[in-house]
Amino acid sequence: MTDPSERSDPADGERSLPGVGLVKGLAVTLKTMTRRSATQQYPDVAPALPPRSRGVIALLAENCTVCMLCARECPDWCIYIDSHKEEVVVPGAARARQRNVLDRFDIDFSLCMYCGICIEVCPFDALYWSPEFEYAEYDIKDLLHDKDHLGEWMGTVPPPPAHDPNGEPAKEETAAARKAAIPANPAERPAVTPPRSTERPAAAPARPAEQPPPRPGPRPAGDTATGEGPTP
Ligand code: SF4
Ligand code: SF4
After folding, report:
1. Probe ligand 2: pick from 59, 60, 65, 103, max atoms within 8 Å of CB?
2. Is the CB of residue 118 below 6 angstroms from any atom belonging to ligand 1?
3. Which sequence spans correspond to the domains of the chain?
4. Whose CA is nearest to atom 2 of ligand 1?
5. Which atom of ligand 1 is nearest to the CA of 70?
6. Does 141 score more than 50 pLDDT?
7. What is the CATH number of domain 56-156?
8. Would the CB of 107 count as within 6 Å of ligand 2?
9. What is the best residue among 72, 99, 124 to mutate for testing ligand 2's pocket, by most ligand atoms within 8 Å of CB?
């Protein structure tokens, strides 16, 4: 059994003094009173959210090609898309083209878990995060936002952050600069080096097939594994 005197630590003597705990508590109170409050006075004061906050998903319907990638990848199956095909007559074209017309694009925010997969996979930049989060409803059915409602959130999407000044320029910028550097007059353009021939060199002559080593004949009488001759 442990001796109680062994369990005491050096602070025990200080704690045992009368009034020390009270003084310590008052010191903490005074220190906290002089600090600024960290409480955010929401909703009187809007919170300063980080630029990449995930509030609500906004839809830019003009960019949507009804490829269905977002609906297929959504782990909660809370994106509902309907569309129909429309013929577009192109002047000069042999036949009319077809294009998808978006009829319905709904997101059920009562199921959405804000994973952002739909925004990541959209190849046409039709979905965006908006930091708006004040869309609570009394009726859960009202959390199904349709195409028009999702489109209204586009006005709250923040502009993309500025490029890193030390980063590589965008491919589009590089291509545009290269194109602008080419003179309009064909005579002033630098000579274009002909592309390297893609023809393969003539095939090397076929190597003669390797002959298998001759099979050993029957071993003479008296021959042993040591290679010695017959015993006299
Ligand atoms: S954020 Fe995730 S759960 Fe919500 S709609 Fe997009 S893919 Fe579905
Ligand atoms: S992934 Fe983008 S383009 Fe494709 S259906 Fe979804 S929102 Fe439209």
Report:
1. 65
2. yes
3. 56-156
4. 115
5. 7
6. yes
7. 3.30.70.3270
8. no
9. 124
> Which pLDDT band holds residue 36 (cuts at 50, 70, 90)?
confident
Over residues 30-50, the mean pLDDT reads: 88
Q: What is the pLDDT of residue 224?
A: 43
Show the tokens assigned to 22.
């009270």
Q: What is the DSSP string of the chain?
A: ---HHHH--THHHHHTSTTHHHHHHHHHHHHHHHSPP----TTTS-----TT---EEEE-GGG-----HHHHH-TT--EEEEEEEEEEPPTT-SS-EEEEEEEEEEEETTT-----HHHHH-TT--EEEE-------SSGGGGEE-HHHHHHGGGGPPPPPPPPTTSPPPHHHHHHHHHHHS-SSGGGSPPPPPPPP-PPPPPPPPPPPPPPPPPP-PPPTT--TT------
